[in-house]
Amino acid sequence: IESPIIYLDYNATTPLDDAVSASMLPYLQGRFGNPSSGHWYGVKEKQAVTSARENVAELIGCSAAELVFTSGGTESVNWAMKGVADTHAHRGRHIVTSKVEHVVVLECCKYLQATQGFEVTLVDVDEWGRVSVEAVKAALRPDTIFVSIMHANNETGTINPIGDISAVVRSHGAIMHTDASQSIGKIPV
């Protein structure tokens, strides 16, 4: 007798929902066109991209002009962190993150340490796996340019108090980055 398989990695990937499949199928089977082209096909696809951009902006509470679509979370985190580091290095070379961040954040921090001389402070989590506001506040220094703390942990599901952490980081004059890829569409962000 075969035992039923229990799949517990839905944060990494899931079966394609029928509604998503139905929405995407036209683009996979016949709709085409470079959305940056001025011809009929391009204009039609630009409308679809614009609509998608507006939907995502509404979901996360920003303007459509603030969005940059990338290939996924890894590219997004690298662009954000390396971009902030490059742009703000003149203000300082200190980054704060936690010991339980997604590997892409930790690897990006290692890269910035090795190639650009950044210092990284890794804060501990509490007994529930959360990053506390107090831990972040204690790690901030005059040369801290940004803090990167995930909203929801991809392995444990722990939700960090990002609003409170962000307030402390902003009051310090640093930039707040959060990887919310495990939260979007699941809980309010």
What does this structure look like?
The chain has six helices and four strands. By secondary structure, it is α/β, with parallel strands linked by helices. The protein has two domains: about 20-65; about 75-175, Aspartate Aminotransferase, domain 2. A four-stranded parallel beta sheet has the order 2-1-3-4, sandwiched between helices. Helix 3 packs parallel to helix 4. The protein is globular and about 55 Å long.
Q: Identify the strand order in the major beta sheet.
A: 2-1-3-4
- The CATH class name of the largest domain reads Alpha Beta
Number of helices in the DSSP assignment: 6
Quote the beta fraction: 5-15%
- In terms of quaternary structure, what is this? single chain
Described by the principal axes of the CA atoms, the overall outline is globular
Number of domains: 2
The overall pLDDT average reads 94
Largest sheet properties = 4 strands, parallel
Roughly how many Å is the radius of gyration?
20 Å
- The helicity comes to 40-55%
Distance between the termini: 44 Å
Task: Output the CATH homologous superfamily of the largest domain.
Answer: Type I PLP-dependent aspartate aminotransferase-like (Major domain)
Extended strand count: 4
- Tell me the CATH architecture of the largest domain: 3-Layer(aba) Sandwich
Which fold name fills CATH's third level, the topology of the largest domain?
Aspartate Aminotransferase, domain 2
SSE pattern: HHHEHEHEHE
The low-confidence parts are none
Cofactor: pyridoxal 5'-phosphate
Organism: Cryptomonas curvata
InterPro entries: Aminotrans_V_dom (IPR000192), PyrdxlP-dep_Trfase (IPR015424), PyrdxlP-dep_Trfase_major (IPR015421)
Family: Belongs to the class-V pyridoxal-phosphate-dependent aminotransferase family. NifS/IscS subfamily.
